[in-house]
Amino acid sequence: MFCLSMKKLLCVLPVLPVLANATVTYTVPASAATGATALDPAPVGLSFEFFAFPSYFKNVTATKQCLQNFETLTGKWPPIRIGGTTQDRASYDPNISAIVEYTVSASTDAPTALTFGPAFMTLAETYAGTVVLGLNRGHDNITNTIAAAKIAKSSMTNLLAIELGNEPEYWSGVQPIASGTWTPATDAASQDNWDIQVGQALSTQSIIQAGNSNSGPPTWGAAELIATENETAKSYVYDYAHHNYPGGTLTSLMSHSSISSNVGIFTADIAAAIGTGKEYVLGETNSVSGGGAADVSPAFGAALWTMDYVLRTSLANIKRAYFHHGTIGACYYCWWGRFDMGAPYYGAYAAVAALAGGSYISALDDGSTNYAVYIIYDSARKPLRALLYNSDYYAAGTGTRGSQSFVLQGLTAAASVKAKRLTAAGAGSRVDQGSNPTFGGQTFANVTCAIGGTEVFESTAVVTGGATFYGCCIRGVAFVFTMSVMLMSIWI
Ligand SMILES: *[C@@H]1O[C@H](CO)[C@@H](O)[C@H](O)[C@H]1NC(C)=O
Ligand SMILES: *[C@@H]1O[C@H](CO)[C@@H](O)[C@H](O)[C@H]1NC(C)=O
Ligand SMILES: *[C@@H]1O[C@H](CO)[C@@H](O)[C@H](O)[C@H]1NC(C)=O
Ligand SMILES: *[C@@H]1O[C@H](CO)[C@@H](O)[C@H](O)[C@H]1NC(C)=O
Ligand SMILES: *[C@@H]1O[C@H](CO)[C@@H](O)[C@H](O)[C@H]1NC(C)=O
C-alpha cells in the first residue's frame, strides 16, 4: 500500500517500464556518533582562474546570483580561491590602474604573461565571502610576490590565505625557479622558505595555503611537505591544499564507489594536516582537468558527481572544496558562463542545500556500492537531513531504467517526511542541449542564475519508524530530509 502510494507520487515522469525494485535499508542514528565529522559552515567553494577572475566578477552576469543562491541557503557566501596556472604567469605592478592587463590571440586562450595592479585586490575585497589569493612563486621573484601580498593583506579584509605557486610539479623546464633540480624535496624546501619570508614580511602567522599540487600523494602532498617543515615554517601555514580532477568516463565519474575511492587517495594527507592542527582543503578541483571534457563535464552525471563528491569530501574531513572555473567560453565543467547554465551547478546547489546549517556528517553506507546515504546533524548532534544517492548509470533513450528503493529506519521523531529530488532525463543531459535538470522541480535561468519554477516536495508517511524512498524514475536520485522535533521533511 505504502509503496504503491510512493510510486504514484514519484513516478509521475513518463518512463520506460521498471525492471527491478531493489531495496537498500539503513537505520538513521538518533544522534551523531563520536566519530561523525565536523562540517565547515560553507564547504562548497569556487576557484576562479587568476586571469579570468576579473571577468567573472565584472563581465559575467550570472556570477553574483549563482554565488548568492548558496548564501541564501546557508547564510554564508561561498568561499572563493583565485589562482591556477596563470597565477605563476602574473607579475604585480603597483603603478597600473587596470585590474589586469594581457593580450591573447583568441578570446578562448589563456594568456602566457599578465600584469595585475592593486585594483585586482580591490576587486577581490568587494566579495562578501572569504578569498584565498594565489600568487606567483614560479618566476622566483619574491620581491614582486611580497609587494602583491602586502597590498592583499592591507586591502582585503576577506583574505583567508595566500598561495605561493600553483601545481609546482609541472614547473621543470617551464618556470625560472625550477631551472635546476626540481623534485618534491626541492619544491618543499622552496615552499618552506617562501612561507617564512612572506609570512614575516606580512608579520602574519597562519596566512599560507600550502601545497597546491595536483599529482597524487604521497609523492606530492601534505604529508610529504609537512615532514620538511620546522615549527617556524608551520607557524605561517593556514591550511594545506591539494588539487583533484578524477577524470574518466561519465559512468565512472558519477559512480559512488569510484567517488569514495577517489576521495580515499587523500586519507593520509588529511591525517597529516590534522596532526599539525591545520585544515585540509581541495584548493582546486573539478571533473576533468584542462577545462573539462565535452562528453563528461557538462552532463547531469557530472552534477551527480559534484553532489556526492561534496558530501564525501566533507565526510573525509576535507573542509572546503574549491571547484575550478577557467577560461570563459572554453570551460566544459563551469557551473555557469556568459550565456548558459551548466548542469553541475544543480549538483552543487543540492549539496549546499543538504549541508546548510549542518554541524556534523556521517555516512550509513561503506562507499563500496552505487548507493549512498549521508546523515547531516545539527549542532546538538540530532539528525537534520539525509541525502540519498543512487548512482546507477542511465543514458536517456537507451535501454530500460532499473529502480532502487531506499528504506530509512529509525525515523521515530517524525510522522511524515518531505523530500526534494535532483533529477534529469539521463546522465548525459546537458542544459545547452535543451535538457535542464531540476532540483525540487526548480531550474536556474540562463544568464541570470535566478531560481525559477515552483518548489516541489515529495512527502511520505513514516510507518513504525520507517519510510521508503523510491528511485524509480531516474538514475541519479538525491533525497534530502530535514527533521524537526515533530516533523521530518525530506527534500528529494
Ligand atoms: C569586459 O568586457 C569588455 C567587452 O568585451 C572588455 O572590454 C573588458 O575588458 C572586460 N572587462 C573585464 C574585467 O574582463
Ligand atoms: C612605480 O612608480 C614609482 C614612482 O611613482 C617608481 O619609483 C617605481 O619604480 C614604479 N614601479 C614599477 C614596478 O614600475
Ligand atoms: C622582481 O620584482 C621587482 C619588484 O616588483 C622588480 O623591480 C624586478 O624587476 C623584478 N625582477 C625581475 C627579474 O623580473
Ligand atoms: C626553519 O627552516 C628554515 C628553512 O625552511 C630555516 O631557514 C630556519 O632557520 C629554520 N628555523 C629554525 C628555528 O630551525
Ligand atoms: C538555457 O539555454 C539552453 C540553450 O542554450 C536551453 O536548452 C535551456 O533550456 C535553457 N535553460 C533554461 C532553464 O531556460
TrEMBL record:
Gene3D superfamilies: Glycosidases. The keyword Metal-binding does not apply. Keywords: Membrane, Signal, Transmembrane, Transmembrane helix. The keyword Transmembrane applies. PANTHER family: BETA-GLUCURONIDASE (PTHR36183), BETA-GLUCURONIDASE C-TERMINAL DOMAIN-CONTAINING PROTEIN (PTHR36183:SF3). This is Beta-glucuronidase. InterPro entries: GH, GH79_Enzymes, GlcAase_C. The chain crosses the membrane at residues 467-491. Residues 374-468 form the Beta-glucuronidase C-terminal domain. Residues 1-22 form the signal peptide. It comes from the Eukaryota. Pfam families: Glyco_hydro_79C (PF16862).
